[in-house]
Write a structure and sequence with these properties.
By secondary structure, the chain is α/β, with parallel strands linked by helices. Helix content is about 30%, strand content about 25%. The protein has an 8-stranded mixed beta sheet with strand order 7-8-9-10-6-2-1-11, with helices on both faces. Strands 4-3-5 form a 3-stranded mixed beta sheet, sandwiched between helices.
């Protein structure tokens, strides 16, 4: 699901990644890899800040990959049902920090045995390329998981949580990757959460959260990659993902700058859900 925001700054030029550029060689994308920001809402706010900075031309297109804290990411639609406060309380009972998503989609759960992979690309007109970005991201993720030995497939499972055409599942049984987008003037974010481990815990919290929201789904579709590939770790998935991404274009390692962190702190309040 993509969410186009109004009132955001425009970038001076269209994309620099190979698939976004109008022609000519692509500049290397920055690679931001490592630990998260230390708070669930701040992790989301860092991506929000990076999206704005890329849109304004302050940063080039980039890839961000990090290990998240235990998080229940609620979508905008989740906030309308009368059971939303109960859903937030359920997330907290399970030890997950409830936050408001940056990208589109419905409630999704992940923790330190998961991985978040994101691409933020400069694009003066991001909306026409939403489906192409989804296809590219899904194929990248499928390829990486297949290299690890998974029977990875792209497509929505009947009854899956946070349903999406470009989800990635294993063997047509277990959804292990959800993808979402946020497009603003000048840039687009494609975000994927990969549930590598703790599948039973993810399933348990989603059962309670979706029951509170009144959303029907099939709990058997929720799980983790390690259910299908015993012993696989988030570090294995990260290596496979970055290798697959490097085959598509150069990456230049970088670190989060102070300007990004300062902007993220300003934006964090947009993603916090205060206790009832």
């Amino acid at each position: 699901m993509a969410d186009a925001a109004a009132g955001e700054p425009a970038a001076p030029a269209a994309g620099v990644l190979a698939r976004e550029a109008a022609g000519g060689p692509a500049a290397p994308a920055l690679l931001l890899a490592g630990a998260g920001a230390g708070e669930a809402a701040l992790d989301i706010a860092v991506s929000h800040a990076l999206l704005r900075q890329v849109a304004r031309g302050e940063l080039p297109s980039l890839v961000r990959v990090y290990r998240p804290l235990p998080t229940l990411a609620f979508g905008r639609l989740d906030r309308f049902p009368p059971g939303f406060p109960a859903a937030v309380a359920a997330a907290r009972r399970h030890g997950l920090a409830p936050i408001v998503r940056l990208a589109g989609g419905r409630a999704a759960a992940y923790d330190g045995r998961s991985l978040v992979y994101e691409e933020i690309v400069a694009d003066a007109e991001p909306l026409p390329r939403i489906r192409q970005r989804f296809r590219d991201a899904a194929e990248l993720l499928r390829e990486a998981l297949a290299v690890l030995g998974a029977d990875a497939r792209v497509g929505e499972l009947p009854g899956e949580y946070c349903a999406g055409e470009f989800s990635v599942n294993v063997a047509g049984r277990t959804k292990v990757v959800g993808t979402a987008q946020r497009a603003i003037r000048g840039a687009a974010l494609t975000s994927a959460s990969i549930v590598v481990g703790n599948g039973a815990a993810v399933r348990a919290v989603l059962i309670d959260v979706y029951a509170a929201l009144g959303v029907a789904w099939e709990p058997a579709t929720a799980g983790a990659l390690e259910d299908e590939l015993p012993g696989v770790a988030p570090a294995d998935v990260e290596r496979a993902l970055l290798a697959a991404r490097a085959r598509r274009g150069a990456l230049a390692p970088a670190v989060l700058g102070e300007a990004t962190l300062a902007l993220a702190r300003e934006l964090a309040g947009e993603h916090v859900l205060a206790p009832a």
